[in-house]
UniProtKB/TrEMBL annotation:
PROSITE patterns: ADH_ZINC (PS00059). The keyword Metal-binding applies. This is Zinc-binding dehydrogenase. SMART domains: PKS_ER. Its cofactor is Zn(2+). Coiled coil: none annotated.
Length: 315
């Protein structure tokens, strides 16, 4: 079978012919249907710092995966040939594309414990996109932010994650205000269902935020969130635009702010995303390419030419 493999930093992916995988006990083999391309894949190609995270070289990249079960190993009872599934990259099985060969290939072997069923109402492209951007956004807003119906929520940053996070908060029944410095994105905030949009979370005078999720993480954005949160409110930081923030301890203490980070998510978070996708009301912006365009797609990502999530489909 064909697989796009990483062979070394500053080198393009290589389309190699590799043996078809076979399922070990507890594993399944997936016939791939969709695989998301991520900025972290670009990071692997460009930065030597990622090498310590890779189990081997060469390795097939691809950590946002959807496919159909083609074979099952001994001991697998929860899944059968023909099941449509996605792969959670945060289980004890490890992350595909890092700990073992990932989904930039025609087939992949993966532990059954990492699988999440894809509902019939959700297509493969969304099924793959939900395993990273969807999972991370949902976990930040619902699991770690605790957003519920009736809450007033601030979303900072309307990029790939923020768009999904804002929409999830709206669908959860919250009143959502979006802070986005790029005014060209403001119409999108209205389409998502936001009650208001401004350049900064500090611009919403008189709004008592129960939860603020900072998908930008540029230091000042986190500091402004701590200032703006209501007493006993929660600020969740997801973005890493800057790796440090200087916050007011006065605001932290007087607001009794619950300040927490959010990193990735779980199988349950992916399943939660699918529940919203099933309704047709959560439709993240996606751009699709063919399997044979994956290397070129990563170049497009690197150049900033992609809108929404970039997903490769397999014919």
């Amino acid at each position: 079978m064909k697989a796009w493999q990483f062979t070394g930093t500053h080198e393009p992916l290589v389309l190699n012919e590799v043996p078809d995988p076979t399922p070990a006990p507890g594993e399944v083999v997936l016939k791939m249907t969709a695989a998301g391309l991520c900025h972290s894949d670009v990071g692997v190609l460009e930065d030597e710092g990622w090498l310590s995270m890779l189990a081997k070289l060469p390795i097939t990249l691809g950590h946002e995966n959807a496919g159909v079960v083609e074979a099952v190993g001994d001991g697998v009872t929860d899944y059968a040939v023909g099941d449509r599934v996605a792969v959670c990259p945060t289980t004890a099985a490890g992350a595909p594309g890092y700990g073992f060969d990932g989904g930039f290939a025609e087939k992949m072997a993966v532990a059954a414990e990492a699988l999440v069923p894809i509902p019939d109402e959700v297509d493969d492209v969304y099924g793959a996109a939900a395993t990273d951007a969807g999972m991370t956004s949902y976990a930040a807003v619902i699991t770690n932010g605790g957003v519920k119906a009736g809450d007033t929520v601030g979303i900072i940053g309307l990029g790939g994650l923020g768009q999904i996070g804002a929409r999830v908060a709206v669908l959860a029944g919250a009143t959502v205000y979006v802070a986005e410095i790029d005014e060209s994105a403001w119409p999108l905030a209205e389409q998502i269902g936001a009650a208001g949009v401004a350049a900064s979370i500090a611009d919403f005078e008189g709004v008592a935020f129960d939860v603020i999720v900072d998908f930008a993480g540029f230091g000042t954005t986190t500091a402004q969130a701590v200032d703006a949160i209501r007493r006993d409110g929660t600020v969740v930081v997801v973005g890493m635009g800057r790796l440090e923030a200087t916050i007011s301890t006065k605001s932290l203490i007087l607001n009794q702010c619950n300040l927490r980070g959010s990193n990735g998510g779980s199988k349950e978070d992916i399943a939660g995303v699918y529940e919203y996708m099933k309704t047709g009301q959560l439709k993240p912006e996606t751009t699709t390419i063919r399997f044979d365009e994956i290397a070129e797609g990563l170049e497009r990502l690197h150049r900033g030419e992609v809108k929404g999530r970039l997903v490769a489909t397999f014919d």
